Amino acid sequence: MEEQELPYVLIDTIGGTYGVHEDHVEFLKKHFNLITMKEFLENKNRLSEKIKAIYMWWHKPAANQELLHSLPNLKVIATSGAGLDHLDLKLISSFGVKVANTPFAVCNVTADLGMALMLASARRLVEGCQIAVSPNTEHFADGLLGDDVTGATLGIIGMGSIGYMVAKRAKAFEMKILYHNRNQRKEEEERAVGAIYCKKIEDLLQQSDFVMLVVKLTPQTDKLFGKKELELMKPTATLINISRGRVQNDCLPTTMQFTFNARVSGKKNQLLILVPTLKFSVGTVIAGLSRF
After folding, report:
1. Which Pfam families match (predicted)?
2. What domains, with CATH codes, occur in the chain?
């Protein structure tokens, strides 16, 4: 019996900054014929009807109209990660193509990152490290110990899978947990982490020492957080965004610095942390951990 040919899958490239990880390739080739964009463009007449799927890594190859038109037998686009905001779902659907993602693959990782950013900002770890390695350092100021996380109030905006995992971690720090969500969690789920539901986002912002944005990017959450929301927060509170960058209003960084001048007193201040999307590097996050 003749061996069945493996299905053809289009990828952008292998290795490099944005290519499929080289250590994934051996496993993938057991199940698929991998075709890079370079190979496809050089042999379009031979390959266009064979390709049944696109495997996106770092949002590439882009599923635009030109590419979709050139793949008449395309059945599915599989994208790494949970977000779908880089895809034109209406366009893809019009070609009869389905979309697959990995909504739970990075829940724990993202929750860990949120907690790490909160702890680093509260305890001023980046500044402390810079001072510790400086040859000019003779002593540490008392203020560099930072602020307490244990017993502080954490407000979580978006209590989906990731938000709930953040709450589980925050419970171990004996934090008071408030949350705002489209729908209230079940009573037993709230009780398990000690979370209190705030129907109005304003109530959460006014009470929280730390506010963490953990929402999906949708038309409803695009530019969800801006000047109005920032001004409702305590002057001493910290804002942490582990959602897409567009959840923040475009004017927020400028507004934030203006607000510091107007509202901050003593040694306390607000802090904005930007989590990287494709437009930000990890260095942006680390730089943001220094206090203004």
Report:
1. 2-Hacid_dh_C
2. 8-100 (3.40.50.720), 107-288 (3.40.50.720)
